[in-house]
Every structure is written in structure tokens, then in C-alpha cells.
Amino acid sequence: MIPISRLPLPAELDQRMTPLTEQIRVTEEGDRAKKARALWRRPATRATVGEPLRGLLRRMAPGVERCMYCGDNLGTDIDHYEPLARDPLRTFDWLNHLLACSHCNSHHKRDLFPVDERGLPMLIDPTAEDPFDHLLLSLSVGEYAALSEKGRLTIEVCGLNRADLARGRQQAYRVVTLCLREWGRELRDRGPCRPEALVRTIREQPFADVCQAMLRQVEMPGAETVFADLPDVAAVLRDPQVRDTLTLKVVTPY
Length: 254
Ligand SMILES: [Zn+2]
Description:
The protein folds into 2 domains: 11-158, no CATH class; 163-246, no CATH class. Helix content is 50%, strand content 6%. It has helices at 11-25, 32-41, 43-60, 102-109, 149-158, 163-190, 196-204, 208-217, 223-226, 231-237, 240-246; strands at residues 77-80, 97-100, 135-138, 143-146. It is elongated, with a radius of gyration of 20 Å. Residues 67, 69-70, 73, 100-101, 103-104 line the site of zinc ion (ZN).
């Protein structure tokens, strides 16, 4: 999971969603989830609201339109971060929409939404907070360890340590390492540079979380141990231009 910057919602789309929320609001409380689901699935809503939303989310998604949870599969579904069964009034709330693959959406997250004793979410929203505040990726193994209870619950709910994802992250680690090594050679030979083909290869890799974890871990205590076999790669990861080009942050439009 990586930090994702949310794009602003175009005014016309906002204007199409407001009356839909109003229709849910005037529905009797016990029937709101059913009403919300019916409105969301209506072909007219899909065409005028669902498709433009999906388009926006695809532009925000990591790599080539990857799932915002696993970072591996193509993001095909609009996921309600807070499930509409829990809060139907957030069905058409732009800040509640993420892009997920059908596997994460249907087999893992589903309607799960852990909260703390105050009712605050205990699931990372990658568009509102930096996932790396809660998660530490073991680069060699490809699995996450939790840095907080929210991290632990996110790993569990989203199945972030499933075996296929761990293997994919190991592979991504090798690819990003090769690209950075090549970038390091160019830095030595040509001086400051930003080789577009390498940047694109790194950015369009599935598992964008691997490169983001490398950029963070090289600046953390213990970096010498993590990158003991890769001192040349660690040097590239510390280069200000490389960091500036590759580091992702959460930027919110509101
Ligand atoms: Zn996924």
C-alpha cells in the first residue's frame, strides 16, 4: 500500500452526486443501505457517475491503474472505504471512494471496517494518511509487519501478506534494484540525470509499495543492515533528485 494523492472532484460530478445522497437521506433509516445499493447499481448512475469516478480513480492509482490495496492486479472496482452497509450516506462521497481489484474487493475487504472504541476507522485510507506510518515492508521477504494496531488490522482485512503478493514484491524488489543500479551508473558517467525509461519502468511496476518502502527505509535507523549487500543502490536512493522524482506523498485537494 502506498500514499495516494486524491484529485479534486469536478463540479459537475459533485452536482450529480448530491441529489443521490439526498434521496438516501430522505429514505427511512432502516432502508437506506438497500436504497443506496439500488441507486449505486442503477445503469444511469453507472454511466453518469460510476464511470467518471472510475476514470478519476484510475488517474490516481499507482503504476498502470493498479489496485490501491494490493498494488498488484488491475483496479477494476470502485471500493467504498467505509462500506455503504455501514454508512449509506457515504455511498456518493468522493472521499470514500478508492480503486480496488475484484479480488481484494470481493474476497478480502468486503464489508469489513474495523473501528476503535471511539468509532474511528482502524483501516488505513491511503489517500488520507501515509500507510508507511503503520506498515513496515520486509524487502527481502515481501511481507508486511505492523507498526500499529491499525497496521495490523489493515494487513488482516486486506490480506496484504498473501503468498502471491509476497512473491510479487520480491520480484519487484529485484527489478527496482536493477533499475536503480543502472541509474547509479548513469549518475556516475553523466552527472545529475533523470533517465526517463528507467523512471517509467520503476513507476509502472506493479507493487509500487516496494520502491516507496526502499526510499523510506534507506533513511531509517538500520539502513546499513537492510542495504548491506546493496551499498550502491542505497547511495542512489539517497540522491536528492532520485528521491524527488520517485517519492510519493499524500496530497489532499481539500
Ligand atoms: Zn487488490
